[in-house]
Amino acid sequence: MSAPRIAVGGVVRAWEGADRTGVNVAYVRSVLAAGGVPIVLSPLLGPSYAARALDGVDGLLLTGGEDIDPAWYGAAPSPHLSPPSRERDLFELALFAAARHRELPILGICRGIQLVNVALGGTLYQDLPTERPGPVAHDPGQARDARSHAIELEPGSRAAAALGGTSLTVNSFHHQAVNRLGGGLVASGWSLDGLIEAAEAPAEAPWLLAVQWHPEEMHAEARAPERGLFRALVAEATRVGEQSRATSPRVGAGSDPASWTSGTAVDHSPR
Ligand code: MN
Questions:
Q1: Is 149 one of the annotated active-site residues of the chain?
Q2: Ion ligand 1 nearby residues (CB, 5 A)
Q3: Distance from CA of residue 68 to its chain's centroid?
Q4: What is the mean pLDDT of residues 162-169?
Q5: Which of the following is catalytic: 66, 92, 200, 216?
Q6: pLDDT per residue over 57-68, tens digit each?
Q7: Who contacts 2 (Cβ-Cβ below 8 Å, separation ≥6)?
Q8: How many angstroms separate the first and last alpha carbons of the chain?
Q9: What's the rounded Cα separation, in Å, for the pair 138 and 190?
């Protein structure tokens, strides 16, 4: 059994005078700690290369970042919206669609839960303080790994299984959140003000789990329950990867290289 390849959605940022592309170290470390091989995918690839970029990949991690353009869910922009990235929206919507088509396991974090929800027809709160003020501070301005608010998880859910329990205090820095849930998703975690903090595909559907907080920031804490989210993604990616290699001989370890060049037996269908 070899370590599964996990695609990690990246960002483009101006930094020290140059435009650069990559992703926060915390996501890469979290996938590595769980036994996966992180493959960072730049949004510069664009939607037309999203599916190609997933070839040979066994799982997908959608990461945090920019607000999603509310046009995707039919809303006018709030004055409190932070500038969206059309480039990143287009790339990640295509990436998500391609990963779903291949039934790859998907973990969404922060923007990731929002992207998944919008892709499946749901809506977002564009700015919690102005649209849904409440007693819980979702962006308290503390250190990125500071646990600040409690959440409750649905017993028996994928979220509870991965996190090893039904209650947890999480770090939180977001001003947007899931409003109306998208099709094929069930809520599985809430903060005490009733906001959705975790959502997932039901048990009979391919593995999909998304959370609103930032489990990746706990990568240095060896016993953090959050590590279970990455372990669950990697375990499912391992299972799905082995299954797909077993049924697709041209990418299996025992495939005959001659079949690639025979001119008659090459199968160009997407995996
Ligand atoms: Mn929160």
A1: no
A2: 138, 172
A3: 14
A4: 98
A5: 216
A6: 999 999 999 999
A7: none
A8: 20
A9: 12
